[in-house]
Write a structure and sequence with these properties.
Layout: H1 3-11, H2 18-39, H3 51-60, H4 63-76, E1 82-84, E2 89-90, H5 93-128, H6 139-151, E3 158-165, H7 168-174, H8 177-195, E4 200-202, E5 207-213, H9 217-230, E6 235-237, E7 240-242, E8 246-253, H10 260-275, E9 281-283, H11 286-307, E10 311-320, E11 326-335, H12 345-355, H13 358-378, E12 385-388, H14 398-409, E13 417-422, H15 423-427, H16 430-442, E14 446-452, H17 458-463, E15 471-474, H18 476-480, H19 485-500, E16 504-508, H20 513-521, E17 526-528, H21 538-544, H22 554-557
Helix pairs in contact: 2-3, 2-4, 3-4, 3-5, 4-5, 7-8, 11-12, 13-14
Length: 558
């Protein structure tokens, strides 16, 4: 047991008989030590043992009681206690009086030091339980209070609301730090006055908890929304109006949990659930958390697949309409792990984009595509590979440098690689993407615009020559409705415009012979889809279509 706990025990008044029992034991100790001194020969032996009950009294009760104990102990060892029992020599009065004085002096010194220590301990405890910015109780105090409430069953139900001051950092950056801090202090004070429970806790630099006894999560939700409405009124900091934005997540005891750490964890999760939604106040939802857990497990497994070579590539041919030769393939990512058969590769890619490691997956695809190109060329087969890029891949030039290094390592000319990007990739930051794509073109790598026609700006990008495309890929949605006269006319116009600009056209998602014939009629250059071939592993692709590939480098230089 540490000294802090001893101090606490010494001041706990719930121990009903503690004072009486302690007083009796100390008095008994004084008598027993007196008897022991007598039977060991008198005051020339073990009188210093008397400091044990005296100092115990000071520690438990205080200085005044310690002085009383000193006097009692002094008289026990005083006028009736021989100096030498065997010789019958009694003490001089000055000896035992001096001893009492010394007992009292030691009591005073120890008591004063002990009071300083206790005071310091109390200050440290208060500091440890108090937020230095707002002066309100902090997370440690919240845990302590909540533990006590639950263990002692003070309330049948508790609701806890975790609020986050969302725009505090922005105010700190664009106004000043002092205003940001003062606005947070005011916000916490308003919450304390509004909820009226005296149970408001500051748990971080922009979060605080309101603990509300005896109401369930439904009523807590209503109260939280009322408080939210109250915060819509600007705060005034030195006449400067500050608009605060808050979010709030609610957890109820025992409905959501009856375990302290789990309650705190679910509070954070409830706030996270709210932050990902369009609402400002929300109640913890187990269903949402299960979805997020599933998402997290998928994310971890996806990353593990990347680290343990659990990806594979299949290739879908691009066929030139003029002679039915394969003039390229699109690399498509697949997972060897059968646990993800229910998830589309598009969904897995979206998860990787959200998590921030899509760049690593793209590099894996680039490296293995270039290795495959090297393998095909060693067999005298020259096939280019197109690779899909996400907007995250174009955040910097690392993908370009990585591709150039891989091409150099495997002695592959850059025009055998083609990067496909969608309009969504472009519109997020046109200037940045334009700069990166120009560097891709300067490196000799080809570029195509995928899913052409699905966005509002597709025609603008094409006719104004905003981006340096080698190909545009007509979206499958156009191809599915190509038999309609107006759509065929529109498609014909797109192809003519592209050809005027020196851009070749690829139609993807071609599944029927009628579609292929119409595309040939309007001058489409290349088609891709199940009409010719589904995506296949490289060995199956060449095994089935040996006579269909091109062996001319010139097919890729244009």
């Amino acid at each position: 047991m540490n000294i802090g706990k001893l101090f606490d025990i010494a001041t706990i008044k719930e121990y009903r008989y503690f004072d009486i029992v302690a007083s009796f034991l100390i008095f008994l100790m004084i008598i027993l030590i007196g008897v022991f001194v007598y039977f060991t020969g008198g005051t020339t032996s073990f009188v210093h043992l008397m400091y044990i009950p005296i100092l115990s009294t000071v520690f438990i009760f205080g200085i005044k009681e310690g002085i009383i104990a000193s006097i009692i102990a002094g008289f026990v060892l005083g006028p009736h206690m021989p100096m030498h029992v065997s010789e019958g020599i009694m003490q001089q009065p000055s000896s035992w009086i001096f001893r009492i004085v010394m007992f009292i002096i030691i009591t005073l010194v120890v008591g004063i030091l002990l009071n300083y220590i206790k005071q310091y301990y109390r200050m440290e405890k208060k500091r440890a339980h108090q937020d230095p910015i707002t002066g309100y109780p902090n997370l440690a105090k919240f845990k302590e209070d909540l533990t006590e409430m639950i263990q002692k069953k003070k309330y049948d139900i508790l609701s806890l609301i975790l609020f986050e001051y969302k725009n505090r950092e922005m105010i700190s950056q664009y106004v000043n730090h002092d205003t940001s801090r003062e606005s947070f202090i005011q916000l916490v004070k308003i919450a304390d006055e509004f909820f009226g429970t005296r149970n408001v806790y500051t748990v971080s630099t922009n979060k605080f908890i309101a603990l509300i006894p005896d109401i369930d999560e439904v009523n807590a939700y209503e109260r939280a929304n009322e408080f939210y409405d109250k915060t819509k009124i600007p705060l005034y900091i030195d006449t400067l109006p500050i608009s605060v934005i808050i979010k709030g997540g609610i957890v109820s005891y025992p409905n959501h949990s009856d375990e302290i750490n789990d309650i705190i964890l679910k509070l954070e999760k409830s706030l996270s659930q709210v932050s990902k939604s369009q609402v400002s106040i929300g109640v913890y939802n187990d269903g949402l958390e299960l979805e997020r857990k599933k998402y997290y497990d998928t994310l971890v497994s996806l990353y593990d697949s990347l680290q343990n070579d659990m990806f594979t590539l299949v290739y879908q041919p691009k066929v030139r309409i003029a002679d039915n030769n394969i003039v390229g393939v699109e690399a498509l990512l697949r997972l060897k792990n059968r646990d993800y058969n229910s998830l589309s590769i598009g969904r897995l890619i979206n998860i990787a984009e959200d998590a921030g490691f899509i760049n690593e997956i793209t590099k894996w695809v680039i490296l293995n595509s270039i290795k495959q190109i090297r393998s095909w060329q060693d067999q005298g087969i020259y096939i280019g590979v197109s690779i899909n890029l996400s907007s995250a891949d174009l955040n910097d030039e690392s993908i370009i440098n990585y591709t150039i290094n891989c091409l150099g390592e495997y002695n592959i000319e850059p025009f055998y690689i083609e990067f496909e990007l969608t309009e969504r990739t472009i519109i997020e930051d046109e200037k940045r993407v334009f700069s990166v794509l120009n560097k891709i073109k300067e490196a000799g790598i080809k570029v195509s615009l995928d899913d052409y026609g699905t966005g509002y700006n597709s025609l603008r990008y094409l006719t104004k020559g905003v981006f340096p495309y080698d190909y545009i890929k007509i979206d499958k949605g156009f191809i599915d409705s190509i038999c309609q006269k107006q759509n065929l006319s529109l498609l014909s116009g797109i192809i003519d415009t592209a050809h005027t600009l020196g851009i070749k056209v690829v139609a993807e998602g071609v599944e029927e012979e009628d579609q292929m014939n119409l595309l040939k009629e309007v001058g489409c250059d290349v088609i891709q889809g199940y009409y010719y071939c589904s995506p296949l592993p490289p060995e199956e692709l060449l095994g089935k279509l040996t006579s269909k590939y091109s062996s001319k480098k010139e097919d890729y230089k244009d």
